Amino acid sequence: MNTANHQELSVPAEQLLIAAERLLAEKGLGAVSVREIARAAGQKNHSAIAYHFGSIDHLIDAILNYRMVPLNQKRANRLAVWREAGQPDDLRGLVTVLVEPFADELLQPLQQSYYLRLLAQLMSQREWQPLFSEHPVRASAALETGALIADILRPQLGDEIALERMRLMGLHLLNTITEWDAVRRRGDFALDPQTLAWRVDNLISYLVGGLSAP
Fold it and tell me: How buried is residue 164: exposed, middle or buried, by Cβ count under 10 Å (0-12/13-18/19+)?
């Protein structure tokens, strides 16, 4: 079954995906059984995951597609606006394309952003880059934006340093958004639009400074 985005999911498959997203985020990878997911989704057939997704790994891929294909489209829309502005050396504008749509996920209700906790776990247990670079359906806009950023950096820094800074930017961005999600879930601070806006602006300044430092 093609699970590239939520519009292609049947109702039972979507119920399984949403239940799995929450359970995996709350309990951890490897700590949730297929039976538990099926029960949480209200399905009596414990082979439902195998039927709809094939395996837990494929289910996790489906979760990432379900959440990140729309995110990819938001980034693509922002990138199109950036291109129309006609400022090819606008490093801050390109970093904003990457950061703002991702940070906006934190304005969703808590039950809609469990995948951020799942991302944090995936990052800690496996190399994070293939989660995106090998799946253009959920990362094409980020990859295109990254290539444009690298084009700006290479003349000043050289290829090796430019690519290393790009890697560090990706790590910092993912770590920061998932950490903010964890903090708001603990109730340490609220992320209303105004609070998120200054944090995002500060994060963008931090990333641009790191990318462009001599």
Answer: exposed
The structure tokens 């703002």 sit at 100
CA dist 144 and 131 (Å) reads: 16
For 23, residues 6+ apart whose C-beta sits below 8 A from its C-beta are: 32, 36, 37, 40
The residues, ordered by sequence, that sit 6+ positions from 160 with a Cβ below 8 Å of its Cβ are none
Instruction: Of 53, 47, 190, 68, give the one whose Cα is nearest residue 131.
Output: 68
Residue 188 is which amino acid?
A: D
pLDDT digits (tens, 9 = 90+) for 180-200: 999 999 988 888 999 999 999
The tens digit of pLDDT for each residue in 104-162 reads 999 999 888 999 998 888 887 766 667 777 788 889 999 999 999 999 999 999 999 99
**DSSP category for residue 191:** -
Supply φ then ψ for residue 105, to 5 degrees.
-60, -25
Q: Which long-range contacts (CB under 8 A, 24 or more apart) does 186-191 make?
A: 191/106, 191/107
Of 60, 42, 184, the residue nearest 122 (C-alpha): 60
User: Residue 80 corresponds to which tokens in the numbers above?
Assistant: 């199109």
